[in-house]
Amino acid sequence: DKGNHRHFMAKEIYEQPIVVAQTLRAYLQRLEDKVTLPIPDFDLSVIKRVTIVACGTSYYAGMVAKYWFEQFARVAVDIDVASEFRYRAPVMEDGGLMIVISQSGETADTLAALRHAKAEGQTIAAVVNVPTSTMAREADLLLPTHAGPEIGVASTKAFTCQLAVLAALAANLAKAKGRMTPEEEKAIVAHLAEAPAALNDALGRDEAIEAMAGAVAGARDVLYLGRGTDYPLALEGALKLKEISYIHAEGYAAGEMKHGPIALIDEHVPVIVIAPSGPLFEKTVSNMQEVQARGGKVVLISDAEGIAAAGEGCIATIEMPKAHPLIAPIVYAVPVQLLAYHVAVAKGTDVDQPRNLAKSVTVE
Ligand code: F6R
C-alpha cells in the first residue's frame, strides 16, 4: 500500500522520521541518557579492530560509520565492498569484529564475506532489516534496523536506519573502550534523539527540491561532491540518481576533483555539493568555487549559515535544518533521495522498479 504517495519510494522516504525513531528506541535509553545495544551480554571492550563489509547503499552507510568508529572509539576500521573483500586475502586478526550491513540480509556477496570471516574466527555483527534473514541467523550479534519492509528497489529508509544503528554502535564501542564520559554519552543521546525531528524538517524541503529537479533532469552527467561523512553521501546521491533516473552520475571526494574529474566540468554538468556548515565547510567551498570558475552549475545543499556564506553563484540551493555533525549524514540523506526521486519522476522512469535491478541480489 503506497498510502497517498505515487510510489513506494516516496512513501518510504516519508516514513524516515518514524522508522528512525523506532530504530533509535531500541538503542537509546533516553530517560537514563544512555546508549545501549540489544546484545547486553557481549563485551565490546575486547574488540581490537573492525571490518565492515556490504554492497551498494549499505556499503555507503558503512563508509559513514568508519568515520564514527575511528573518531569516537579510536578503533581502526577496514571497509570494503563485499565482492572485493573475499578476493584480496584480507588480514583478520584475533579480536576482530566484522560488521555486515544489509537491508535484505540475503545479498550473496555479503553473505559469502560473512561466512569467510566467521571461518577465520571473527565475531560477526549483522546490521540487517529483515530479522528472519540468513545473515541475521548466521551472525553472532544481531543489530536490527526497524525500518519495516522496504519495497522500492532504491534503498532509502533502510539507509538512514542503518546509520542510526551504526552511530549507536560506535557510541557503545567508545563507551566500552573507556573513551566516552557520561556527559559525552548524554550529549550523543540528545543529538541522536534530534534526528527524527530534523528528518521531518528536511522533508519540508520537498517542494523546493521538486521545483529545481528540472535543472538536473535534462543533464547527461551529474557530479556529487562531499568531504568527510558527506563523501559517502555524495556516492549515495550519485547511486540513487543513476539507478532510478538513468542519468550518469558520479560521487567524488571534493578534494579529489582537481586530480582529474574537473576536466569534465562545463556548463552542461550540474554539480551537487553537499556541505553543511562546520569544520570542513571552507575546504569544500573552495573546491566548489574551482568548479564554478570553470562554468560548472552548482547546486549547494547546506544549512542557512552555509548558504548565506557560499550560495551566491549557485544555480540552486537546498536549505537543510542546522544539524549536529553526528546526525547530519542521516538528515542530508533526505535531499539526495528526494532529488533523485523528482528527477526520475520528471523523466518518467519506473521509480519503484528500475530496469535491470532486483531488490535482493542473491547471485555473486
Ligand atoms: C541501492 C540499492 C542497492 C543495495 C545493495 C545491497 O539503492 O538498493 O545498492 O543497497 O544491493 O542490498 P542489501 O542492503 O539488501 O544487502
Automatic annotation (TrEMBL):
It is found in: Cytoplasm. GO terms for molecular function: carbohydrate derivative binding; glutamine-fructose-6-phosphate transaminase (isomerizing) activity. Its EC number is 2.6.1.16. Its main location: cytoplasm. Residues 38-179, 212-354 form the SIS domain. One of its GO terms (cellular component) is cytosol. GO terms for biological process: amino sugar biosynthetic process; carbohydrate metabolic process; fructose 6-phosphate metabolic process; protein N-linked glycosylation; UDP-N-acetylglucosamine metabolic process. It catalyses: D-fructose 6-phosphate + L-glutamine = D-glucosamine 6-phosphate + L-glutamate. It is an enzyme of class 2 (transferase). The active site is at K359. Keywords: Aminotransferase, Cytoplasm, Glutamine amidotransferase, Repeat, Transferase. Catalyzes the first step in hexosamine metabolism, converting fructose-6P into glucosamine-6P using glutamine as a nitrogen source. Homodimer. This is Glutamine--fructose-6-phosphate aminotransferase [isomerizing]. The gene is glmS. The chain holds residues 244 to 607 of 607 of the full protein.
